[in-house]
Write a structure and sequence with these properties.
The chain has about 575 residues and is of the alpha/beta class. The chain contains 22 helices and 22 strands. It has three domains: about 90 residues, Alpha-Beta Plaits; about 200 residues, 3-Layer(aba) Sandwich (Rossmann fold), CATH 3.40.50.720; about 180 residues, FAD/NAD(P)-binding domain (3-Layer(bba) Sandwich). The strands form six sheets. A seven-stranded mixed β-sheet has the order 7-6-5-8-22-21-20. Strands 10-18-11-12-14-13 form a six-stranded parallel β-sheet. It has a three-stranded antiparallel β-sheet with strand order 15-16-17, with no helix packed on it. Helix 5 links the parallel strand 5 and strand 6. Helix 5 crosses helix 8, helix 5 crosses helix 19 and helix 10 crosses helix 11. The longest helix has 18 residues. The protein starts with a strand and ends with a helix. Bound molecules: NADP nicotinamide-adenine-dinucleotide phosphate (NAP). The site of NADP nicotinamide-adenine-dinucleotide phosphate has 24 residues, from helix 11.
Length: about 575
């Protein structure tokens, strides 16, 4: 018997640190860890002790004889990773992880402010507060009255298992050396300089959740939105809850085929009775219940082997009842260039990715279910057309070529296709925004960093006491757990600076911070206030199938917290 890692794997590697035989790979110190879609258990080395099951924050691990429905393929997917002889070189010895001891001569605690309360912020707080050899105090700032960032507002509502990671974050948030300030915006209520003078260091973990445009005509038409808006809307983000979505058309088109595109497609075609068992926003549930959309087309500009989605998320698309996932056989077929590349790397997981699409029923066959998702490949949008609102998308067929860095890229041909639709969602990635008082790289849309230290633009010169982690540091890539190692790296750099006296001592006390916040933002909330909101949201559906009914305006949240 072996344990198997399944779809909701968050890559935070907690399982690796408890495995007594080091049978879970890639580990954070192995070269494949960064780009890995998920972690895998070696079936030949697993001693079925179950330690990983208990440690996994998102309930992604199950025994091979008791895999959840639809997760059966993960047994072969886990085993496939270890078919590559390069992956067998990793000796199955117990993992010994040590933290570098730090000797500091300063009195008092190391005081760190963390801006943001999503996964990157919470993992950074955990990495700091877990140091048993140091006194550390963390102040965490969130501009909304509720915490957890993308876990609350990004993760799809039908992925409740993934949201279970907040249990870890709650544990950190409840620690006595952690002060939570909600509904406080750095740059509005407290400036960067004011924050820095009250702490040894500030870590920015503000994410990069702003949408990108495609730069094609018609993007402004009614019915053309970013996936970011749609995700924020169905997840009840206060900034986006009021966005109107017209779902009266029959076909929606999603541009881009990353995991966000798949999330959005699933939500558009899901059975509303199933969504009603999740924490999807009430307004979204009502709109989706009246939706006429029966077909969603997901447009990838490259081929099935280069798709940006992960294998596990592609497999979960196939789990939506009443919906079939189909593809055009000629688009599922690999082009000669990709075939040659895959032939030279027989162990690449891209084989699995391509095979899944090849096995899909043909889009030309008669429909077997009421709704369908059509996976399209080697197509790029060149315009969105319609009188006042979206009526069609103009696509150009691409052929694949080798780009300058050896990566396969899409190049347009002269062949075009017009696709009738009433809704276009562009899901072409995210970007970060500049932060007042900090350097910003406008070409990567990130704060420039070296090992987590914020550096002056175009230099390696660190800005004393200022750090970044998560998407604002590395860009919008990876999974929730990817932030754990990322945050650890940033915290290691910060602690190294602290140990070598490279940080300035705070010029003012914590009490002055509270005074400042009290004066500038009387509606600031603390963690206990969030607990009141949390309890209210969870208790609203008493007896019903919904885990919580989200409050979707700041006013409602403040009212429940007793602040208005
Ligand atoms: P993503 O994975 O970077 O995908 C972006 C997609 O947009 C790609 O298909 C890309 O194509 C395409 N694209 C970019 N510019 C385009 C253009 N001008 N025209 C046409 N297509 C274009 O981004 P994402 O889906 O927003 O996800 C962000 C991160 O969050 C990813 O790391 C993702 O895995 C993660 N995430 C994970 C989950 C999960 O684990 N369940 C859920 C949601 C998000 P190319 O590949 O050709 O560049």
């Amino acid at each position: 018997m072996t344990f198997v890692i399944t779809r909701s794997c968050c890559n935070d590697a907690t399982c690796i640190s408890v495995c007594p035989v080091n049978c879970i790979h890639p580990t954070p110190d192995e070269p494949d860890f960064g780009p890995a879609e998920m972690l895998y258990i070696d079936p030949d080395q697993c001693i079925d002790c179950g330690a990983c099951v208990d440690a996994c924050p998102v309930e992604a691990i199950a025994p091979d004889f008791d895999l959840p429905e639809g997760a059966e393929q993960f047994l072969a997917i886990n085993a496939k990773y270890f078919e590559d002889p390069a992956h067998l070189d990793y000796a199955p010895v117990p993992v010994q992880r040590e933290t570098t001891p730090i000797t500091v001569t300063q009195d008092g605690a190391l005081r760190v402010a963390i801006v943001g309360s999503g996964p990157a912020a919470c993992y950074a707080a955990e990495a700091l507060l877990d140091r048993s050899d140091l006194a550390v105090e963390v102040s965490m700032f969130e501009r909304l009255p509720v915490p957890w960032g993308l876990v609350r507002y990004g993760v799809a509502p039908d992925h409740q298992q993934t949201k279970a990671v907040t249990k870890l974050f709650e544990r950190t948030a409840r620690r006595p050396d952690m002060a939570f300030y909600l509904n406080v915006e750095i740059g509005t209520h407290v400036s960067h300089d004011e924050l820095l003078t009250r702490h040894h260091a500030v870590i920015y973990a503000v994410g990069a959740a702003h949408d990108r445009s495609m730069g094609i005509p018609g993007e402004h038409l009614r019915g053309s939105h970013s996936a970011t808006e749609f995700v924020g809307w169905y997840n009840g983000h206060p900034d986006l809850a009021g966005t109107g979505f017209d779902l009266s058309c029959e076909r929606a088109v999603i541009i881009g085929n990353g995991n966000v595109a798949l999330d959005v497609a699933r939500v558009l075609v899901s059975d509303v009775d199933e969504l009603a068992k999740t924490d999807i926003a009430e307004h979204a549930l009502e709109t989706l219940a009246a939706s006429n959309i029966s077909e969603v087309m997901i447009i990838g500009r490259r081929g099935p082997a280069q798709a940006a989605y992960t294998i596990s998320e592609m497999l979960s698309l196939n789990q939506v009842p009443t919906t079939e996932v189909v593809a055009y056989p000629e688009e599922a077929e690999l082009d000669a260039l990709t075939r040659a590349q895959l032939n030279s790397d027989p162990y690449s997981m891209a084989h699995v990715k391509a095979e899944i699409i090849k096995q899909l029923p043909s889009a030309q066959a008669k429909r077997r279910r009421a709704k369908r998702i059509v996976m399209r490949y080697r197509l790029s949008p060149v315009g969105i057309e319609g009188d006042a609102s979206v009526q069609r998308v103009r696509l150009v067929r691409n052929h694949l070529a080798v780009g300058t860095d050896g990566v396969i890229v899409a190049e347009p041909t002269t062949q075009q296709e017009l696709l009738d639709c009433g809704l276009v969602l562009r899901s072409v990635g995210y970007r970060g925004r500049p932060i007042a008082g900090l350097p910003f790289d406008g070409s990567t849309h990130r704060v420039p960093t070296r090992h987590g230290r914020v550096v002056r633009e175009g230099t390696d010169e660190p800005v004393t006491g200022v750090y970044a982690t998560g998407w604002i540091k590395r860009g919008p890539t990876g999974f929730i757990g990817t932030n754990k190692q990322d945050a650890q790296d940033t915290v290691d750099a910060l602690l190294d600076d602290y140990a070598h006296d490279r940080l300035r001592n705070p010029q003012a006390t914590c009490a002055t911070l509270d005074e400042l916040i009290g004066a500038r933002q009387p509606a600031a909330l603390r963690y206990q206030d969030w607990q009141v909101i949390d309890k209210h949201e969870r208790s609203a559906p008493a007896g019903g199938p919904r885990p919580r009914i989200k409050l979707v305006t700041v006013e409602e949240m403040l009212k429940v917290a007793g602040r208005v």
